[in-house]
Amino acid sequence: MKKRTDRKIAIAGTAAAAVLLPAVMVGLAQAGVGVPKKLSDAVGDSEPVPSFGPAAQPSAPGALPSPTKSAKPVKLPDVPTGTNPFRTGGGAPAPNDPDTNARKRGTKPKLPDGVGSGKYAKAPNGATITGVKKINSRIFDVEIASPALGAKVKTRVMVPKGWSANSSKTWPTVYAFHGGNNNYTSWTKDSDIEQVIGPYNAMVVMPEGGWNGSYANWYNGGRGGIPQWETFHMGEVMPLMERNFRAGASRAAIGLSSGGQGAMIYAERHRGTFKYAASYSGALNISAPGMPAILTAMNRESGTSIWGDPITARGNWQDHDATVNVAKLKGIGVYVSSGNGEPGPYDNPETPPHHAGRIGEQLSGVMAENFVAAAKRSGVSVTANLYGPGMHNWKYWKRELKRSWPAIAASIGARKS
C-alpha cells in the first residue's frame, strides 16, 4: 500500500483528531462541497510516452467507473500514535531523499549542481547516469542525476545471463517498485526476486521511489515542481535503461504496498507502455470514501503536498486512483492480491488488532476489493488473489511474486535461459 500512501497512513496526530477530520472532509468531498466542476489539475498529469523506444499505440480512452460506486467505506482503526501501518522496511531515509527534503519541495526541476556531460546517453530531459557500481556478476547500482528530483538517486538493475551493454539485442524488462519507508535495494534485500526471475532472460529495473513512496509528481499547492516521481520513473529511468542498458520495450510493472499503486497507475496513465501490471497489497483506491482524509490527516510531514487538498484538488486524487481509472487497463495482463488484515498462516495468531501490519492490510484489502469490482464493471480482465487472512508483510509478497511470475513472464516473452 502506498507508503505515503504507505507513510501517509502513518500516524500524524492523535487518533481522535485523525478520525474527526476524515469524517468532516470526506462528507464534504462526497457531497461535492467546494469542489469545482472542472479542476485544473494539469500539474502532475502524465505526458506522452517518450520516443526512446518503439512508439506505443495507446488505445482510445474508455468510460471510467464512478470512483465511489459500490465502493466499501474505508474506516480508520484505532491506532497508537507513532505507528506506521505501511512500513515495508527499516532504517531511515537517505540524507538526499527528495520526499523529506522540504527545502526543495515545489522548486523548479533541474539537474543537481556539478553534473557534467558524462559518457552515457541522456534521457530526453537531460537526466544522466553519473555512476555505475557492480554489486555482483548480475547486479548493478546505477546513480542517476535527475532534474525531476533535483538530486542524484540510485536504481538497482539485475541483468540476465548473457547480457551485454554492447549487444545488438534487447531484453524483456520488469520494472519493480518498492514500498514506503524503503528504497531501491528493497527487492533484492527483502524478497527472493533473484531466485524467481534470475533464471529467465529478463532484466529487472528497481528504481528509487522515495521514502514516502508516492509514485506521483507532487501537487505542491498546484505549482508542481520537485519531487516528480512519475517523471523520474517514466521519463528518466526508462529511457536511460533502454539507451544504455539494452532494456527492451516488452515491459511489465510490479510493486508491493505503495509500489503496487505505482505499478498500476503508471500502466493506466501511460497506456501501451506495459504489457502486464501486478500489485501486491497496493493502495489501489486512494479516493475511496474516507481514504483521502485518512491519507492527508495522517501524513504529518507532507500534508496535502502529494496529491493536493482532497476537496479542492479532488480531480487530481482521482487522476491517481487506480480504481477510478481501471478501464485504461484493458488489453494488458493484471494481477492483484491482498489479505484482509487478520492474522494469516505466516503471522502470529495472537497479533492484536492495533498492530500496524493488521491495519495496513485491512486498508489495502478494502481497496483491492473495490478495484476488482470496478474492473469487472469495466470489462477489464483481472487475476485476483484476495486471500483473506494475512497481514502487511514480505512473507505474503514473496509468495505472490512467485504465483504471478509465470503470467508476467509469458506476457513479455521472458523465458528460462
Can you describe what's shown?
The protein is of the alpha/beta class and 417 residues long. 26% of the residues lie in helices and 16% in strands. The protein contains 9 helices and 9 strands. The chain has helices spanning 15-31, 186-190, 193-197, 229-244, 258-269, 291-297, 314-319, 356-378, 394-412; strands at residues 128-136, 139-146, 151-158, 171-177, 203-207, 247-256, 276-280, 333-339, 383-388. Strands 1-2-3-5-4-6-7-8-9 form a 9-stranded mixed sheet, sandwiched between helices. Helix 1 crosses helix 6. The protein is globular, with a radius of gyration of 20 Å. The protein starts with 14 loop residues before the first helix and ends in a 5-residue tail after the last helix. The relative contact order is 0.20. The model is unreliable at 1-70 (pLDDT under 50).
